[in-house]
């Protein structure tokens, strides 16, 4: 029980750090600082950033293709420092969960493969990109092994037991996130990796939040009639979670291809309801590795297709969230009605922030808030789904 309380406290710390990392990541992208440090994990060879005139001159000599822009170096390196701190906290959570695991929990293959993954990441820093294919193999083996273990021994519904597979999943995910962060730099903001990095950040935040729910034993105690009504909403709540996740992915693809202002008017796009679009190019997930993707390389029709899809996704999200809120509000329970208000309020606020991004030409504060709103809406759906699936009759 002491170990579980420690995991809970560490998870709360990890959640706070992860929230900062997500916001810093959004800020870094929005101020075009994704390549503020052209090397990884150092910044122009420095643990921090080059600050003196001599250091900057030497950095410009060593990295002539990417001269120092001091206003872009510090956001990137601060983001890396917080992300590294998050990784250490999550590995600490995994270590505590490992010590306090159930005796029947299979753990040897997880620890072995995690060790290989950590060693491979360190080796990548020393040896270079020749290890990238091997690293991808290590990542695949780690997550496939977790799937195998979950299939052999499904997660117990007993909320009092120490979670192990969820901390193990987080440990692998945070290392993968570090690799995505590295490839974001080494592959020159390749949109596929930038989007994956954003999704990985949101997923990490959501899984830490889920771990807090499990370790905190946050469940609903409801009378049987209310519980029976809420059971009919489980599928819709899960659909809502999937829709929000897909909309976040669309948002990630929008920002990684610099399509946020492809439609500069609202509610129309280019003063028409059906603008000229190029969906084949806009959703070409096989863009070449090599070019510098800072600022985007797609033409306007392709970017319009991405932006327009994100708007349609927002409309679909609103419909699903409104239906979910309506179903919750009809349940004869003050708790369910409160959650109906939370769901619809979070959705409306997020859509309002998205509209404001267009109307006010992507002001930094609103754009960062839009990222935060997406994370908040995701956490609302994660919490609701967890509560619905762990609710018990009083």
Give a written overview of the molecule.
The chain has 394 residues and is mainly alpha-helical. The chain folds into 2 domains: 1-218, no CATH class; 220-394, no CATH class. It has 13 helices and 2 strands; from the N terminus they run H-H-H-H-H-H-H-E-H-H-H-H-H-H-E. Pathway: Porphyrin-containing compound metabolism. It is a multi-pass membrane protein.
Radius of gyration based on Cα positions:
22 Å
Please, how many helices? 13
Average pLDDT reading: 94
Give the helix level as a range of percent. Answer: over 70%
Poorly predicted segments: none
Task: Write down the domain tally.
Answer: 2
Strand residue content = under 5%
Tell me the distance between the termini: 24 Å
Instruction: Name the helix and strand elements from N-terminus to C-terminus, one letter apiece.
Output: HHHHHHHEHHHHHHE
Instruction: Name the structural class.
Output: mainly alpha
Sheet with most strands: 2 strands, parallel
Number of strands: 2
In spatial order, strands of the major sheet run 1-2
**Shape by Cα distribution:** globular
């Amino acid at each position: 029980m002491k170990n579980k309380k420690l995991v809970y406290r560490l998870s709360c710390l990890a959640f706070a750090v992860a929230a900062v990392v997500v916001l810093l990541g959004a800020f870094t992208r929005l101020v075009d600082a994704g390549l503020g440090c052209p090397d990884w994990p150092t910044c122009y060879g420095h643990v921090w950033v080059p600050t003196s005139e001599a250091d900057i001159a030497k950095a410009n000599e060593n990295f002539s293709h990417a001269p120092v822009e001091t206003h872009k170096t510090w956001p990137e390196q601060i983001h890396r420092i917080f992300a590294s701190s998050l990784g250490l906290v999550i590995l600490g959570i995994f270590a505590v969960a490992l010590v306090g695991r159930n005796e029947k929990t299979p753990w040897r293959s997880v620890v072995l493969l995690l060790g290989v993954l950590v060693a491979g990441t360190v080796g990548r820093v020393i040896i270079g990109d020749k290890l990238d294919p091997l690293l991808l193999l290590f990542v695949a083996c780690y997550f496939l092994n977790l799937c195998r273990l979950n299939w052999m021994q499904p997660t117990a519904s007993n909320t009092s037991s120490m979670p192990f597979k969820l901390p193990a999943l987080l440990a692998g995910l945070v290392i993968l996130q570090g690799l995505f962060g590295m490839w974001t730099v080494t592959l020159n903001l390749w949109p596929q990796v930038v989007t994956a990095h954003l999704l990985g950040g949101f997923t990490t935040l959501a899984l830490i939040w889920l771990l807090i729910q499990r370790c905190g034993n946050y469940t609903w105690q409801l009378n049987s009639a209310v519980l029976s009504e809420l059971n009919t909403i489980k599928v819709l709540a899960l659909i809502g979670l999937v829709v929000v996740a897909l909309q976040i992915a669309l948002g990630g693809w929008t920002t990684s291809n610099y399509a946020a202002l492809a439609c500069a008017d609202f509610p129309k796009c280019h003063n028409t309801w059906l603008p000229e679009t190029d969906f084949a190019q806009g959703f070409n997930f096989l863009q070449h590795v090599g070019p510098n993707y800072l600022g985007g390389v797609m033409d306007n029709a392709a970017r319009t297709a991405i932006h327009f899809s994100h708007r349609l996704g927002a409309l679909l999200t609103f419909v699903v969230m409104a239906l979910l809120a309506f179903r919750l509000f009809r349940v004869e329970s003050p708790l369910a009605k409160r959650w109906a208000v939370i769901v619809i309020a979070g959705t409306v606020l997020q859509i309002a922030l998205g509209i404001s991004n267009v109307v006010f030409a992507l002001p930094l504060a609103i754009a960062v808030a839009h990222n935060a709103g997406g994370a908040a809406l995701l956490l609302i759906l994660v919490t609701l789904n967890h509560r619905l699936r762990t609710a018990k009759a009083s």
